[in-house]
Structures are given as structure tokens and as C-alpha cells.
Amino acid sequence: MRAVVISEYGVLPEIREVAEPAVADGSVVLKVEATGLCRSDWHGWMGHDSDIVLPHVPGHELAGTIAAVGAGVSGWAVGDRVTTPFICACGACEQCLEGNQQVCPNQLQPGFNYWGSFAEYVAVPYAAVNLVRLPDDMDFATAAGLGCRFATSFRAVHQVGQVVAGERVAVFGCGGVGLSAVMIATALGAEVIAIDTNPEALHLAREYGAAHTIHASADTVAQIHDLGGAHVTIDALGSNDVVQQALQALRPRGRHVQIGLLPQGVQLDVGRLIGQELTWLGSHGMPAHAYPEMLALVATGNLNPQHLITRTIPLEQTPAALAALTNGTPAGVTIITP
Fold first, then answer.
1. What is the pLDDT of residue 48?
2. Within this chain, do residues 134 and 212 fall inside the same structural domain, yes or no?
3. What is each CA distance from 57 to 13, 21, 33, 99, 127, in whole angstroms?
4. Are residues 38 and 113 in the same domain?
5. How far apart are CA 301 and CA 311, in angstroms?
6. Are 261 and 40 in contact (CB under 8 A)?
7. Residues sharing a CB contact under 8 Å with residue 97, sequence separation 6 or more, in sequence order
8. What's the DSSP call for residue 332?
9. pTM of the model as a whole
10. Per DSSP, what are the bridge partners of residue 4?
11. Is 218 exposed, middle or buried (0-12, 13-18, 19+ CB in 10 A)?
12. Which residues lie across from 215 on neighbouring strands?
């Protein structure tokens, strides 16, 4: 099969012919119909993830059709249209048995722990707990974006942040995760403030429901407080500076949800956390069993993840698109069709 192969961190990947993944017991192999280009893939390419072993194939948000079914997998057949969370949980540990597959200590992640979906085929381990059947009327490009950015934002906004109608939500960073959060919080009835340095991203945020947009600057916190302060802040980027601004922008007893990765760590103003009774919440993906609520809202038109897609590219353009993320994340979501 053809795949995007990283041989050296930070060096442009190549399209190569490599062996197709074997189907193991309890797993399936998918023919990749669509896969998303995410900033997490860039972090992996730059060497920020210790799980990656070179040579490596990135890609972790995907949708496709089942090409092979391993022994012990029931209820799934070749040709089924599916997606999967980027966290493939084991299904047997204490956290999984409690329904918390997104923090499974035995999790495997395509594109990080093993070769991912920037290829014509990809394996999905622990298929029984990680496959999500797609509605017949959902196209693969839309479904690919659900596995990481949109599902991650849905859980962060709705299930972890517990945003409700009438609250003011400030979303820092309007890439794929941030724009998803804007759309989801708006659908829940929140008054959304979108913050970014990219005018095009802010334009999309307004299209997806943001009531206010702020060009990020030293005055960002003051501008948010001029609007009444935020009940909930979301760091969809991953930045120490953003974390500090997000905490300062909160109203008393406000909630901060951290989605963006912080590879360099972060320092918190614990005194402010205590004195204002603020809550710091981490959110990491969403398990397969939680998808039905999100899919139902997509089916009714309350959520429209397909609108987030701004570019579709073939596999051949993927290495250059991945490298271009060094200069910033383009507005919207890029989908790759292998």
C-alpha cells in the first residue's frame, strides 16, 4: 500500500510503498476512505511524542470501510462503514469497565503507538469497544473529522465543561478543535467568544456561531471582561500564555477546560484558582460508546461538522501540508483522501 512515511523528525516525509497491516485477533483492518490532518500529527512529526518509533506513518482521525476482520470480532463484517476514536481502548481494564475508555492505561493510538491512517489501510485494535458504525447518509470526510477534533470538542464542551444555555464561553484558538468547540457551544445555547490571531479563522468562527471575535493581543483578557467575563474558557491550542489568559478571563467560580497539548508544561496561578474558586479540567478524546448522542445531533442538523471542512487533498500533497503546519494551522479542517 501507499503511505506517508516519516524517516527523520522534522524532515519532509515521503510517499512509499509499504506492507499492508496484518489483521490480528480482536482487531480489524480498514480501507482508509478519509483521514484528517491535525496539529497533533505535526507534534509527532517534530518528535514531541515519545511513543513514536521511526520509521513511522502518522494519522489518527479516520473513517473507512472494513477490509478484514480478525478472529474473535463479532457483529462487524467486511464492507461496514465505520470510524473510531483516536484512543483505541483495551475494553478490559478498570477504567474501561467504568466507561472511561478515553483514559485507558492500555490504550493504543493510530499514528502514535503504531502506524496510522496517512495510508491506504490502517489497523484498529480492540475492535469490539472502538468501532463506531456510521449513518448511511454521512460521508467519509465528515466522519473522519469526528474521531479526534469534533468528538474531542463535543466531550470537552458538553460532558466535561458542562456548558449550558446562557453561559459565556471563551474559546482560545480557532483551528479544527476550536472551531468545533465554537459550533458545539453555540448549539448548546452559549454566548461564544472566539479568540485567534488569524482573521480567516475568526471569520469562520463567526460563521459557526461565535457572538464575539477577538484578535488575540495583550488586551484579550480586558476585552473578555468588558463582555462580562467567561463562565467557561477553553484552550484549544495548547500554550502557556493562553492558559494564563484563560484563567484570568474567568468569572469567579468559572471553569477552564484544557484540550490543547502542552509539551513544554505550564505554570498555574494556584492562588487565583483558590481565591476565585476556579476549576481546572482536562479533557482527552471521547470513547466510542458516547458517540450516539453526538451523531444524533448531527442527524437532526443541530451540529454540522461537515461545514468545518475547508480543504481536501490527496495523499501526495500530505507531506507538504504537514510541514506547512510549522508556519501555523490553516483555518478550518483539512481532509486527506488516500
1. 87
2. no
3. 9, 12, 16, 29, 20
4. yes
5. 22
6. yes
7. none
8. S
9. 0.93
10. 15
11. exposed
12. 196
